[in-house]
Model the fold of this input.
Amino acid sequence: MTGKDKKINTKSDIRVRFAPSPTGYLHIGSARTALFNWLFAKKSGGSFILRIEDTDMERHMEETISLITDSLKWLGVTWDEGPDIGGRFAPYRQSERTAIYNEYAEKLIAAKKAYHCFCSPEKLDDKRKKLAEEELYFKYDRECLKLTEDRILQNIKVGLPFAVRLKVPDDKDIVFKDTVYGEIKVNSNILEDFIIIRSNGRPTYNFSAAVDDILMEITNVIRGEDHLSNTPKQILVYEALKKDIPVFTHLPMILGADGSKLSKRHGSISIEAYRDDGFLPEAIDNYLALLGWAYDEKTTVFSIEELIDKFSIEAINKKPSKFDYEKLLWLNGFYLRSKDDSIITALLSEKLKILGVPVIELNSKLPKIIPLIKERIKTINQAQEIVRPFFFDINYPDDIKDYFSGSAEETKKIIETAAASIAKIKEFTISNIESCLRVLAQGLNISFKKYAETIRAAVWGSKVSPPLFETIEVLGMKTTIERLKQFSSLLIDIL
RNA sequence: GGCGCAUUCGUCUAGUGGCCUAGGACAUGGCCCUCUCACGGCUAAAACAGGGGUUCGACUCCCCUAUGCGCUACCA
Done:
């Protein structure tokens, strides 16, 4: 309405959460979910909560928690409350909240909205299988709902293991409005009395997530579309507890290039892997934002600030998207090109140090090298490859003779004249190297194109290289001449 | 099987009944720049899943079909 109603970047009561299960690294899809939650929180001036959903101790792997938090931090997704920093509603690990879930389950039992179930998983399984043979679907038959109070007490007393089931109301339409998918209506009859507390005392997902979202005062639930079908169950928990439901926003899935669920078959799917492969976090963030969201009809590049500024839940679309590695690569290259040389230098230095290049050599060469390769790389790892001949001896490939088009005689002449003339250059500058080589080519009446391809093969061992004169300048007179001679002797063998 | 959701160029998408001869980006082809490769510029090819309605008019609304995906666990 009026300007003062606009609440951007001021504190608001909006509270969102990212709730990963620590079963592995942070993958693409989860990262997108985290990003959208974070963008929404930033945009609305709300709080972003990190909660670890580790209720299944068998699947849970402790080490992966730091894997996930490290990746989030790398992406720039920061949290206001979480397991490591605490907050008003601590603890933020569900494994530390078992007593809370049990307390709420007890309340529900007392209110006759949930009940003890002594059926063993094996027994249930048998029933399921039997019905499956007739192509029928098993829905829990409420056997334990019929148990008398005395019987239940007796069972508990003798130590019979039990789970707790939520009593799902009969024939009730569960309706909610998803901000992306619109109104969703499901009849409760298709739902069984699902388990909320397992026989080991731990809650199941649909219960712990709902309870925590209530307790942590989550206002907006933003998560993957795979949870859309679970939402009615959680709403039932909200209703049983007499609480208002939050605003639900489900995000379309991210699929592999072939349209199937994104998996290792499709290449790297962990954020960690992209970091190791030399991607920039801003490129990943930007790319992820484009999956299921668009600002207008032409903009594709967004800085984090622009993303926060322009992001809106309303603009999220419903269509599942396929992960396009090529486009990510292009974006990363784009960001790399826009970066200050010093940033690329720092990133590349790290990689090169590991390969054993002395820091002093790095410091002297890299400032000259970066401008030469900046427009030729899409990742830092590609930079590492491209830059190799500047730091290590080269091996000529077996098909090296296909790299130049002249005759053996001609090639030999080119190499020899070059070696002799280059050795005489007084000041080893780019322009002196250029004029030296151009004069040589002219003198031999050879096109410079052809001349250059031969020199390139000799000093770089490849058909492609960074710009020749600049490359030679960085290599230095000594190395250049050594390579020309090395190449020359090789020529004798292959011609 | 049941329930739910989706369907615009190869891919990400714009499009909310006439602005659409459907726009942009990546990828692809061509041209230019050029010592190679890139970068950059120009340019080309490329889509409304199918069938019914509704309407003067449908990419846009409704129905059906097809296809895909998700949920249907004492996984999350």
